[in-house]
Design brief:
Length: 136
């Protein structure tokens, strides 16, 4: 979850948002829509992850954690992406030798609360940096 020098990852990397604005030609407002869609869909992504982990669904857990990681990376949500990456690594490690009906709920107990807290902080930061006035 931390960078090699153990400094915490930033909630949001502003350079990713800047690059997104450039690539999406900000004069059209596409980056705001893109970030707003990330914010709007984040609770559903977390719900899918929670359900898959707590029910021991390996395929669903991998799908949900990869979706969370990729979407987070695309908006510069570095800390959230790092947490998802750490969870992904744990799921892959457990899949090699563990009973997934036990291992995945245990990973849910370890990871879901910090991921949920980080997602709330990330939403607030993204709203402040990109989409002032957004509802969530």
């Amino acid at each position: 979850m931390s960078t090699p020098d153990d400094a915490p990852r930033p909630l949001v990397d502003p350079s990713v948002l800047d690059r997104l604005r450039e690539e999406l030609e900000e004069e059209e407002g596409y980056s705001r829509v893109f970030v707003a869609n990330f914010i709007d869909y984040l609770p559903e992504r977390l719900d899918k992850l929670r359900l898959a982990l707590t029910t021991g669904d390996l395929e669903g857990s991998m799908d949900a954690v990869l979706s969370l990681k990729t979407a987070s990376q695309m908006v510069g949500a570095e800390r959230l992406a790092g947490m998802a990456q750490d969870l992904e690594a744990e799921i892959r490690a457990e899949a090699r030798h563990a009973d997934m009906s036990v291992a995945l709920p245990r990973l849910a107990a370890t990871f879901l609360r910090p991921i949920t807290q980080c997602s709330r902080q990330t939403i607030h930061r993204l709203q402040a940096q990109c989409c002032p006035g957004a509802k969530r």
